[in-house]
Amino acid sequence: MDLVKLRAETVGSQARAHFNNAGSALPPTAVVQAQHAYLDLEAKLGGYEAVEQQQMALERPYAALAQMLSCEPDEIAIVTSATTAWQQVFFGLPFQRGDRILTSRAEYGSNYLAYIQAMKRHHVEVSAIPEDDLGDIDVGALESLIKERPQKPVLIAVTHVPTSSGRVYSAEAVGRVAQREGITYLLDACQSIGQMPLDVRALGCDYLTGTGRKYLRGPRGSGFLYASRKAMAKHEPAALDIHGATWTGEQDYKLDPTAKRYEVYEMSMAAKVGLGVAVEYALNLGMPHIWDRVCSLATLMRQKLEELPGLELHDKGRQLCGIISFSLKSHSPAEVKAALASKGINISVSAAPSTLLDFRTLLPTPALAASSRATWPPAHGSTRVQSFSRLETSAAPACSWTVASRLSMERATASSRAVPASGKQSSAWTAQRCPLKDTCQTVFTKKPANIRG
């Protein structure tokens, strides 16, 4: 695997240390070139004419995502974001007063806002499924919640990997319960798609949503939905237009027989083309190889972090992924972000409402999450894995870092990069003062034996 080639295929890695891949990853050159070529064609031919000429490229994401998820292309919809996909499913469900929704404690904020809307509009009830001692969904508690009333819940909606910690929920175990009980199961895979292998048949989900801009390293403004044929036979999308349905009479319409019923006519066709290229890029690298490398780096980072005095790891779970969360009494999240930005290191800051229930369990105050990166395998035998981190802010001095291993094509020369310090209350940090410096350098520079460069 050629690291030099892989890094050369990620232009942004030449100038910055991009640790914000949990937000939006740096795309490979192939993705950028595909988008540019499509936009150029639109400028020369016209938008509709470009669509007619580029049918194969526009169909690419359906086949590629079907291969990645082990489903059929007609079960895939391409939309503008993961939230759009999720909302097309959720708000299309025919909720009635007294219906129950079961969700995870680490549910993403946008999803939970939709639950609150459903509570207000339809008077549904929402319950968070308890977690076991390891921070995983307690399947026994889930079964008890289902059986506590004669009327079963109408929906189980779970975020596979939370934005606030490195645990991976046992989505397959939830799926087995949902299938046995005949309950619709909606899985938010925003943080897991592209990081680990996913098989919707094994997961047992009726719906799965994801974005292109995170681990898949695709364009912003791209997302997707998997909708099983069984689910499509039961439910309609929240909103229709003439792309997803045909107007057949003054009071009638006919849904598209495929998951394209969840799409709308207008979206960036260049983003759609780029998404197909990005998914194929990951497939060529091999999801099992990507996942193995992510776990290896995350394990190493956790081991090194445990050696640091004054640092507490918060990740717990039967299965951990690239995200590593820990707390460190130091500077405010805003200071951390500013200090890193001054050294050419990208991170982001998000508030506790991103996963409010989980934050209240994890820490009494919102947590700080930062990113680091390492190396993993890309197309044509090159590999590069990156650890990304995210910041979650609070006014309190206690903060928690999150470091996540993320597939990325960026330079891993940590020795030339400054990383945050946790000493005095100052934003003028240097690499020499940073207690994480040696830990980060070890992870950044560690390479498997079969990687060159």
From TrEMBL:
- By its UniProt entry, which PROSITE patterns does this protein fall under? AA_TRANSFER_CLASS_5
Which cofactor does the UniProt annotation name? pyridoxal 5'-phosphate
Residues spanning the signal sequence: none
The record's keywords, sorted A to Z, are: Pyridoxal phosphate
Q: Does the keyword Phosphoprotein apply?
A: no
Q: Which InterPro entries match?
A: Aminotrans_V_dom, Aminotrans_V_PyrdxlP_BS, PyrdxlP-dep_Trfase, PyrdxlP-dep_Trfase_major, PyrdxlP-dep_Trfase_small
A Pfam family it matches: Aminotran_5
**Where does the Aminotransferase class V domain lie?**
19-348
- Give the family from UniProt: Belongs to the class-V pyridoxal-phosphate-dependent aminotransferase family.
Q: Can you name this protein?
A: Aminotransferase class V domain-containing protein
Question: What organism, scientifically named, is this protein from?
Answer: Apatococcus fuscideae
